[in-house]
Amino acid sequence: MRDQIAARVAGLPEELEGEGRTAAVDVITRSELAKPRHTAVAGFDMTFTPPKSVSTLWALGDRRTQTEVLAAHRKAVQDSLSFFENAALFTRTGAAGCEQRPTRGAVAAAFDHWDSRAGDPNLHTHVVVANKVQSPDGRWLSVDSRALHHAVVTISELYDDLLADELARRLPVSWSWRHRGVRRSPGFELDGTNDGLMAEFSTRTTQIDAAMTATIGDFYAGHGRAPNRIEILRLAPTRHPGNATRQARTPAGRARRGVARTRFRPHRQDARGTDWRRAQPVAC
Fold first, then answer.
1. Is residue 283 in a domain?
2. pLDDT for 49-70, tens place per residue?
3. Is 151 contained in some domain?
4. CA angle 82, 86, 92 (to 5 degrees)
């Protein structure tokens, strides 16, 4: 920005001096500051998270069950990424990016996580996609982020469906539609999963719900009414419940898979009433 301002100031007539020059510089500065700035990003984080009942099954199941759940999750992630590369990964060329072009695939790294920031079972995978792709002519260009963002919901739904099919193929489980609380959309969960146990393993959700209740209360106090759905989505980022309850991960909090499973063992007694068909958790 400084270079653009300096270049325009240098182009002012030499005879323009005093207050006139000061006013012209001020106009140039204001116009440059008003221009939209596009900041490039290094990459994109795509997070694949199974339903809570699946994380519960993974955390409390026997070793074979845990292996099959993780394999099903990874297969669903892999197939979802293949869809992304084939159907939603593009770059742009030409003036102002007017031409959308296919790519030779994504450059990405995947990281499996086993728990939430609150320490609850939360099997999920972060896939960090680099913001550079190779076009068919060999040039390295930026990802068409608009196409990526437009495909996010489709990729998420595809992962959910692939996971359900893959898990049912590997283990004798079934799924059903279940309500998951106020302000949360219903969704499919594994049949027979103990609701109380899933609630106990949902500390972050409980924290976010409490923060949202407080936020809505503040809005009501200031406006004399509750916010509508659009207003809730437009609440200031600093007041967003997810940020308000977000805790930084410490090195000690990044549990390895074996450490996480050991930490969840005391809850196996609570899972005695849980029936995942023949995919039973180990009883203490």
1. no
2. 999 899 989 988 999 999 999 9
3. yes
4. 130
Q: How far is CA 248 from each of CA 101, 244, 277, rounded to the nearest angstrom?
A: 39, 12, 38
- Identity (one letter) of the amino acid at 56? T
pTM: 0.67
Domain count, the chain: 2
Residue-range definition of the domain harbouring residue 58: 43-273
51 CB contacts (<8 Å, ≥6 apart)? 160, 187, 188, 189, 190
